[in-house]
Specification:
The protein has about 140 residues and is α+β, with helices and mostly antiparallel strands. It has three helices and five strands, in the order βββαααββ. The chain is about 20% helix and about 30% strand. The longest helix has 16 residues.
Length: about 140
């Protein structure tokens, strides 16, 4: 008998996450939080992340939450670096994929995003998130 006794590790799923497929989801939480490494630091020293929580609405994975995390440059000093510019571009891409018009991106708030219906699916370069609602029209 091995280290895990009678536990059949070999028969476990290969991933605890949904397999690459398309999932109808809803945004159920939106927040900006410090990283675990910096959460006890003074606010000026914290590294912040923009978090979107998607909850799958149907199928075998109904109720499963997936959290997307993007670095959030919190000031002009951070956003003017090469990494800060890249992070801001990633934020813009995500907001665009959720249907937020460019003219509203600086003013979007949590309530604008909560409850949006989103199709989650895998692309060669990673997960894609496309909003299926258009509350801004």
């Amino acid at each position: 008998m091995g280290l895990f006794g009678d536990l059949d590790v070999e028969a476990a799923a290969d991933s605890a996450w949904p397999p690459n497929d398309k999932y109808h989801s809803v945004i159920t939480d939106v927040s900006i939080k410090p990283s675990k490494k910096t959460e006890n630091e003074p606010p000026a020293d914290q590294k912040l992340f923009f978090l979107l929580t998607y909850t799958i609405q149907e199928g075998d994975w109904e109720g499963q939450e997936l959290v997307e995390r993007k670095w959030y440059p919190k000031n002009d000093e951070e956003s003017s670096t090469a990494d800060g510019k890249k992070a801001t571009t990633y934020l813009k891409q995500r907001l665009r994929s959720l249907g937020v018009p460019e003219a509203r991106m600086n003013d979007v708030d949590k309530d604008d995003l909560l409850g949006l219906h989103v199709e989650l699916y895998e692309e060669p370069e990673g997960p894609a998130f496309n909003g299926t609602d258009d509350p801004w029209s």
